[in-house]
Amino acid sequence: MLFVKNSSHDPWFNLAAEEYLLKHLDEEVIMLWQSQASVVVGKHQNTLSEINYPYVKREKIPVIRRLSGGGAVFHGPGNLNFTFIRKAPPGQLIDFPKHTRPVIAFLETLGVPARFEGKNDLRVNGLKISGNAEHVFKNKVLHHGTLLFNADLNRLNHAIRVIPGKYRDRSVQSVRSRVANVSQFLEQKVSFESFYEKLEDFLRDYFTDAEEYSFSQKEQELIAGLAREKYGTWEWNFGYSPDYLLNSKADIEGDPVELKLSVKKGTIDAAHFLTNGKKGKLFEEMRKELAGRQHREKSIAVLLKEHGLIDEVSRGLPQEWLSLFF
């Protein structure tokens, strides 16, 4: 077993590192890591239906799709991520209780009575402190989870707050739970750095055969390439979403407008506007021109600029247009 040292806070690199370790190394793996503020959605989710798009855009929070299923989670300062890559016979790979047992045992040493509950969560007194997901590749399973230690829960809640009913699809839906930080359950306060070190020491004792491993320069280049070519692309993070329908309303220059979009593989299949305003004819022209465009802010902004509705594509969409299209 390898205990991987990963000091990167780059969320694209970190998710790519997991895939690299899963698919290119034969050994079992443990890795602890942190990322900068980011929303990470499950492989089978409709990204736009899981995030507060105007908020993450304004706050410049990256949104990235991971390799495993499950629901959306928030990474960032104060959140510690753990990864286990283990081998098992066919039919025994998916085992959430087994893979979270070391983390629960560690928390017990700090006096935190965590339990495996809900939809693959770790909870304390019914409050979620950790979300977990798994992905099988050949004879191995990637299990990873979050540990909210002293994260900004207000920012977390804003980033994944959604408008009910705006999107309709058959994707995996996140189960919203009340969350809490581990730090609030500690009898003796410790810093995040100390918490990180204590977990690392505990896991080294728990998995006595673990050997320290660092990425070589070549491996770092390969992982960075995967991060750039897959995890950093709109096609993976948004375009990969299952087909969906958008139904939204907004006031455009004082006129109420309702928009219905059908989106397949990230591309608008059909659009329909409902309005009694003075721009009815213009919206009819736009309806025809939306078909075949990516449901992507940049693509929508180009169309709006062509019709003189916004000044510069590079500035992004004004709030009213964001509310309508996303």
What's the end-to-end separation, in Å? 44 Å
What's the alpha carbon Rg, rounded to whole Å? 22 Å
The succession of helices and strands, N to C, reads: EHEEHHEEEHEEEEHEHEHHEEEHHH
Q: Name the CATH architecture of the largest domain.
A: 2-Layer Sandwich
Q: Which parts are unreliable, with pLDDT below 50 for 5 consecutive residues or more? A: none
Number of helices: 11
Domain count, please report it.
2
Which structural class best describes the helix and strand composition? alpha+beta
Helix content percent band: 25-40%
| Text of the CATH class of the largest domain | Alpha Beta
- Strand order, sheet with most strands: 7-8-9-10-6-2-1-12
